From TrEMBL:
Name of the gene: panC
Extra information: The reaction proceeds by a bi uni uni bi ping pong mechanism.
Record organism: Actinoplanes siamensis
Extent of the signal sequence: none
Subcellular localization: Cytoplasm
This protein's name: Pantothenate synthetase
Family listed: Belongs to the pantothenate synthetase family.
CDD domains found in the cross-reference section: PanC (cd00560)
Reported function: Catalyzes the condensation of pantoate with beta-alanine in an ATP-dependent reaction via a pantoyl-adenylate intermediate.
Recorded metabolic or biological pathway in which this protein acts: Cofactor biosynthesis; (R)-pantothenate biosynthesis; (R)-pantothenate from (R)-pantoate and beta-alanine: step 1/1
Oligomer and partners: Homodimer.
């Protein structure tokens, strides 16, 4: 049976039921199959899975979609029950930030300043602040995050390493629609026409990743994005697999962020670079 905790006290009581390892899947709700995959991956290893549902105000900038972010708690609880979560922690703002808006927050460092960090100032500081808090409140032994938010996953790994948080972080590959669109709660903002335009992101990454020379990767992906009038590109970048410098050969990452109408979407794929023979 899934227990639902809205307060810290209710969470403490629910965690009493954990006999062994506690696995955590953190979300902002509006659950979809990407979240489902995270919960199922966690369940394969740990019988006690805690799902957190909290739209964290600290990671939204002014003018972003905090107010309109989809809140679908009843449906989300149904999904968590169906997936066999032991606990759903869906706290209010005061339960996460009892002292009000925190004046001491995480500094994401240089890795937090590029890509998403450059486009969304303050986002990663707010994200890491809540992730650290939720790891602690849920007494997580292991936590699962999606590769769809690849830079977020890298920063969480780095925070756990640097602050010696003693939690295992597991990355889960991106779940896509059959036509390639990466599942995202924000996809529900898209009109039918915008959804068609949004397909250019995954197509650009897929076709770009078909090349092994960096210039060809970027030219191919860039052309597809430029030819789709419904897409306003924020960035298209090739990096090392750890988001550092592009290697001469070996594993790398191709990442994109773009606006489709008023909706900002991100996506990324792994890629292998090879030197020309
Ligand atoms: N398509 C996906 N495949 C795998 N994991 C995903 C996918 N979408 C989201 N996740 C993961 O689910 C967790 C919670 O993410 P979140 O609730 O923000 O969902 P989201 O769909 O990314 O929402 P948004 O549209 O706001 O970006 C994160 O670890 C995120 O990386
Ligand atoms: C990790 C997270 C739940 C923190 O609010 C959020 O950034 C998300 O849903 O990816
Ligand atoms: N899925 C990442 C959380 C955010 O966009 O705020």
């Amino acid at each position: 049976m899934t227990q639902v905790a809205h307060t810290r006290d209710e969470l403490v009581a629910a965690l009493d039921g954990a006999g062994g390892e506690v696995a955590v899947v953190m979300t902002m709700g509006a659950l979809h199959e990407g979240h489902g995959r995270l919960i199922r991956t966690a369940r394969q290893r740990s019988p006690f899975v805690v799902v957190t549902i909290f739209v964290n105000p600290l990671q939204f900038g002014p003018g972003e979609d905090f107010e309109k972010y989809p809140r679908t708690l009843e449906a989300d609880l149904g999904a968590c029950r169906a997936e066999g979560a032991a606990v759903v922690f869906a706290p209010g703002r005061d339960d996460v930030y009892p002292g009000g808006a925190p004046s001491i927050t995480m500094n994401p460092g240089p890795l937090g300043a590029i890509l998403e960090g450059a486009s969304r100032p303050g986002h990663f500081s707010g994200m890491l602040t809540v992730v650290e808090k939720l790891l602690r409140l849920t007494r997580a032994d292991v936590a699962y995050f999606g590769e769809k938010d690849f830079q977020q996953l890298a920063l969480i790994r780095r925070m756990v390493l640097d602050l010696e948080l003693g939690v295992e972080i597991v990355g889960v590959p991106t779940v896509r629609e059959s036509d390639g669109l990466a599942l995202s709660s924000r996809n529900r903002y898209l009109s039918e026409q915008e959804r068609k335009s949004a397909l250019a992101l995954s197509r650009a990454l897929r076709e770009g990743a078909g090349h092994s020379d960096p210039a060809a990767v970027l030219a191919t992906a860039g052309k597809i994005l430029a030819e789709e009038p419904g897409v306003r590109l924020d960035y298209l970048e090739l990096t090392g697999a750890d988001l550092g410098d592009v290697p001469d050969e070996g594993p790398a990452r191709l990442l994109v962020a773009a606006r489709v109408g008023a909706t900002r979407l991100i996506d990324n794929v792994p890629i292998v670079l090879r030197k020309e023979a």
